[in-house]
Design a protein that fits this description.
The chain is of the alpha/beta class. 31% of the residues lie in helices and 15% in strands. The strands form five sheets. It has a six-stranded mixed beta sheet, with helices on both faces. Helix 13 packs across helix 15. The N and C termini lie close together (10 Å). This is Actin-related protein 9. Pfam families: Actin. InterPro entries: Actin, ATPase_NBD.
């Protein structure tokens, strides 16, 4: 304890960080890096496997609802008109008379002041293995057609040199490269996590999901972090998992990290809790707007309140899809075949357009830009166009009927049923507060540790999705705490994390709509969204770093041998617990 009071944070990081790998898996991306890194690698969470047979479809996934029903279409149009009235723009099918009212335009010269990326097109991935210093047989540099003809003539009897000259396909392709593979190539793209859960279905078997996760993570560890398998026993892993994960999903992640990836030990932290630490806070309402799912959870004095958890089935990718629908409806999208389901490279383009041009502000918001078309195997085509109603898609966060989600048949829920909760519900326990520690009532490192001996077991909390916008979800989450003093503090400590949190105009929009969503009989009149001290995309990962370095006693860590031999029951028979209590301890050290 005395050491923690006197040590310089940078020294603590230098001492403990080099052997800590922080892993924050998400549906669309995985953030992973050493604790000594300023920022992690942020890599698309997908893998493309080569198949010798032409696949029926180049994306192996659950059945997608690409056809919107009539009811959904009507609801979407109604939501658009509600948003249009708020933003003071024409309704969806309203014909605007020329010069009938002044137009508030974005810059129309193709330049956007906050666009740090040039409007360059994505390129198709080279799917062939690179063989340096390789040469064609017979000292020739003849074209491929002649080489193939020669190969056919000698098939079955010629030397192996000719066979070796034939380009070899890469067996596995990961990350963004996997998303940029042409649909004409014999590859099958897979995403092992979808909408905040393992992407298990009759189309994507459980064993294949785990094999793909192992392949992706192993590739990152070797190629990006340069940690080969035979050295991982010198490293420990910090898993920062989404709140959406069920008990068995967390266990499978631990098995992957300890048994398959061969880390010596591991610990689990939740994204929302880690985000609080990443921003140096103790109490906050954390709103995590990811690519495919949004979650809300409240944290008080470093302890999560699981009864406040809300999960919303939409995220940044849904805003990108809505952007495409909006432009097509207004006939501003070029006459090109843009299909994010069969051509993931189109989703990359839409995500970039969304990040560059979409914002929340009143008045018409248009911009001239270049849209690219990606036809099978051909170079990208450029199409200059004027995009309109760019402030509508992000408003879908408040009116989710605008964001018609793809429907994924859920895996059998019995698969997730688990009587041993990896994220034990500890909010009934009486944790020591900072004032008690400062008064000397709980001195030293063993704050409250005797509680482990009689740790109560509660039923696992349900993982249900809410069908509301983020303003209603935030309000409902905070009001469910039931204490007016805590509610007032939380309404003034809202924290937006995730890539969508960077959207211009989102903060004042959240503050205004949350304030309007609070019932009039509640004595609350102030709402504030706190500015993130670090990049909202990486704040949960950064919090995992802080928790891993501060965890001096490592009471909640699981060792590889114990996990493989005994599973969840380790050591003296005490069940492994999530880091609710551990994080409360660390917060005590920070604020003491």
């Amino acid at each position: 304890m005395d050491y923690l009071k006197t040590v310089v944070p940078s020294q603590l990081t230098a001492e403990r960080g080099p052997n800590l790998v922080v892993i924050n898996p998400g549906s669309a991306n995985i953030r992973i890096g050493l604790a000594t890194h300023d920022t992690p690698f942020n890599i698309p969470h997908c893998i493309a496997r080569y198949t010798s047979q032409v696949p029926k479809k180049n994306v192996q996934d659950q059945m997608l609802n690409s056809q919107i029903t009539t009811v959904q279409h009507m609801e979407r149009e109604k939501a658009y008109d509600i948003i249009a009235s708020l933003l003071k723009i024409p309704f969806l099918d309203e014909e605007v008379a020329n010069n009938s009212f002044p137009r508030k335009m974005g810059r129309v010269d193709g330049y956007n002041p906050h666009n740090s990326k040039k409007e360059t097109a994505f390129t198709w991935t080279d799917v062939y293995e690179q063989e340096p210093n390789s040469s064609l047989p017979l000292g020739s540099s003849i074209n491929e057609g002649v080489a193939n003809e020669s190969l056919d003539q000698h098939e079955g009897s010629s030397s192996n040199e000719l066979i070796s000259s034939k380009p070899k396909f890469r067996q596995f392709i990961f990350g963004e490269e996997a998303l940029r593979i042409s649909p004409t190539e014999s590859y099958c793209l897979r995403r092992p996590i979808r909408r905040g859960h393992l992407n298990i279905s009759q189309h994507y078997p459980m064993q294949q999901v785990f094999e793909d996760l192992h392949a992706i993570w192993d590739w990152i560890l070797i190629e990006k972090l340069h940690i080969p398998l035979n050295q991982r026993n010198m490293y420990s892993a910090i898993l920062v998992v989404p709140e959406t994960f069920d008990n068995r999903e967390i266990k499978e992640m631990l098995t992957l990290v300890l048994r398959d990836l061969r880390f010596s030990s591991a610990v689990v932290h939740q994204e929302g809790l880690a985000a609080v630490f990443g921003n140096g806070l103790s109490t906050a309402c954390v709103v995590n707007i990811g690519a495919q799912v949004t979650s809300v959870i409240c944290v008080e004095d470093g302890v999560a309140l699981p009864t406040t958890e809300k999960t919303l089935p939409f995220g940044g990718e849904d805003i990108s899809r809505c952007l495409l629908w909006t432009q097509r409806h207004h006939q501003t999208w070029p006459q090109i075949r843009t299909d994010i389901l069969t051509k993931p490279i189109d989703l990359l383009m839409l995500n970039r357009l969304k990040e560059t041009y979409c914002e929340i502000k009143e008045g018409e918001l248009d911009a001239v830009t270049v849209v690219h078309s990606y036809e099978d195997g051909l170079p990208a085509g450029s199409h200059k166009t004027r995009l309109t109603a760019l402030n509508v898609p992000p408003m879908g966060l408040f009116y989710p009927l605008l964001l018609v989600p793809d429907v994924y048949p859920p895996p059998p829920r019995s698969w997730f049923h688990d009587y041993e909760d990896m994220l034990e519900d500890t909010w009934h326990l009486d944790f020591p507060r900072r004032s008690d520690i400062s008064d000397g009532l709980y001195p030293g490192m063993n704050v409250g540790l005797p509680m482990w001996d009689n740790y109560p077991v509660f039923t696992a909390r349900p993982k249900k999705e809410e069908k509301v916008g983020i303003a209603e979800a935030i309000t409902s989450s905070i009001l469910s705490t039931g204490r007016i003093d805590l509610q007032r503090k939380l309404f003034c400590s809202i924290q937006l994390i995730g890539g969508v949190g960077l959207t211009s105009g989102l903060v004042p929009a959240v503050e205004e709509r949350v304030l309007h969503a609070i019932p009039s009989n509640e004595a609350i009149d102030t709402v504030e969204v706190l500015q993130s001290r670090t990049n909202p995309i990486f704040v949960s990962w950064k919090g995992g770093v802080i928790l891993g370095i501060l965890d001096f006693g490592r009471d909640a860590w699981i060792h590889r041998e114990d996990w493989i031999r005994n599973g969840i029951h380790i050591g003296n028979g005490r069940k492994y617990k999530d880091s609710y209590f551990l994080q409360a301890q660390a917060m005590c050290y920070i604020n003491s």
